[in-house]
Amino acid sequence: MKRVGTEPLGIDHFAAYALLVLSGKERPAEADVEKVLTAAGLKGDEGKVAALCAAMKDKDFHAVVEEGLKKMSSMGSAAPAQAAGGAAAAKVEAKKPEPEEEEVDMDMGDLFGGDY
Questions:
Q1: Is residue 88 part of a domain?
Q2: How far apart are CA 3 and CA 7, in angstroms?
């Protein structure tokens, strides 16, 4: 997300903006974004809404989303490395014999209230 000063723009603000664009409003105004946020039970930060609308003023929403997706795809993922490490750990654990548990006959007494 873009930053306004030291604060990042909230995902809820961008989501409201995206809903408006996807519903056919090419350049949503601040009031439109605030209205969507209010309808969703959220309180929008006027400064963030204004900053978002100003940042998106001369940009194509779909191009911004596409650019963001490209950035995300270039980040990669740590999941394959974790999966490989997990498989090695599983092999080590599989070699350890598990101790056999003894069966214990427990008398539950009259737990459920009567003879059957």
A1: no
A2: 6
